[in-house]
Design a protein that fits this description.
Uridine Diphospho-n-acetylenolpyruvylglucosamine Reductase, domain 3; 3 domains; binds flavin-adenine dinucleotide; 17 strands; 23% strand; alpha+beta; four-stranded mixed beta sheet; Uridine Diphospho-n-acetylenolpyruvylglucosamine Reductase, domain 1; 303 residues; Uridine Diphospho-n-acetylenolpyruvylglucosamine Reductase, domain 2
Length: 303
């Protein structure tokens, strides 16, 4: 088998932020076999889903990336309440399949563009539901072990994190046990979630990467940022969204990664100065870093 490589692949339009540059080698495997073949031949490869929680450097990345969007075809049909889904399946697609089968637990995924693998790595949550709530097991891959299985407990889930952020362990597919409800009840909950988002978060038509900072324990990053006047902050072509201070928007799609990082530093420093609280970024970073970018990533502790 020979998996095609896309050299100098411009990734900007794949990101929800519409920011990014060229990836030296981009792979789009369609199966576990292809995934394995790529990982075995490439050193220091990284794995991404839909880039909806990732700031990609405008200078691109001088390395190799696997994008999982092609790994989403097989197994995507629940059996006896058990739902096994491949890593590249989009959360909203999985949520709609579950709804049609009368299975509840995925209603929260309807309004944001994460892949199943990205959602598990980030332990994504919203509207009182979380990806780990109904998870039974994950089929994973690591260079050392090959394909192996981890239970929910092995995944070391906590707020917006999992074992995938600590070790080079990749999600291939995940099995969930969902709860029986009627499709109508599930659709009602989805409608409620979508209505909430419409009033509290920028839609995907406005390029953004979701929440910029994690909520500190017992507090809200959005509230703290609002209180320091962040809704008026901007740097170059990127600004804090006027309706919620924990979102950065790239309205005209002209923003760059350094502008986002400078704006994040401004938000971080303002909260630290007023409250002594160091906000932790939720957004991940992919790409080359010039001296200034490396400096900001170090201060913000961006991974
Ligand atoms: C409009 C909008 C609304 C959002 N709302 C929410 C929300 O309500 N709740 C929420 O939690 N998030 C939200 N997000 C953020 C984002 O969608 C989630 O973090 C999502 O889980 C990221 O998935 P992704 O596939 O885009 O991951 P990516 O951005 O591609 O990657 C994120 C991280 O996951 C890792 N990763 C990706 N795939 C795999 C894999 N197969 N195996 C191991 N690691 C992997 C990457 O290496 C990276 O570290 C929102 C984003 C947007 C743009």
């Amino acid at each position: 088998m020979h998996v095609e490589v896309n050299e100098n692949f411009d990734v900007k339009n794949l990101t929800s932020f519409k920011i990014g540059g060229k990836i030296r080698k981009a792979y789009f495997p369609k199966s576990v076999c292809e995934f394995e073949e790529i990982i075995q031949k490439e050193d220091n490869i990284r794995v991404f889903g839909n880039l909806s929680n990732t700031l990609v450097s405008s200078d691109g990345y001088d390395g190799s990336i696997i994008f999982t969007s092609g790994m989403r075809n097989s197994n995507c049909s629940p059996k006896d309440g058990d739902f096994t889904i491949e890593c590249g399946c989009n959360g909203p697609v999985a949520a709609l399949i579950a709804r049609d089968e009368g299975l509840s637990g995925f209603e929260f995924m309807i309004g944001f563009p994460g892949s199943i693998g990205g959602n598990i790595c980030m332990n994504a949550s919203a509207h009182g539901q979380c990806i780990s709530d109904n998870l039974i097991k994950v089929k994973c891959y690591s260079k050392e072990k090959g394909v192996f299985e981890l239970s929910k407990e092995d995944m070391e889930f906590s707020y917006r994190t999992s074992i995938c952020q600590k070790e080079p362990i990749y999600v291939l597919e995940a099995t969930f046990q969902l709860n029986k409800k009627t499709p109508e009840e599930i659709q009602d909950k989805m409608n409620e979630n979508l209505a909430f988002r419409k009033s509290h978060q920028p839609s995907l038509a406005i390029p953004n990467c979701g929440s910029v900072f994690r909520n500190p324990e017992g507090n809200s990053a959005g509230k703290l940022l609002d209180e320091v006047g962040a809704k008026n902050f901007y740097v170059g072509n990127v600004k804090v969204w006027e309706n919620h201070a924990n979102f950065i928007v790239n309205l005209e799609q002209k923003g760059t990664s350094i502008e986002v990082l400078e704006l994040m530093l401004k938000m971080f420093s303002s909260v630290k100065e007023k409250y002594g609280i160091e906000l932790k970024p939720e957004v991940r970073y992919l790409g080359n870093k010039n001296i200034r970018e490396a400096e900001i990533c170090k201060i913000l502790n961006i991974k």
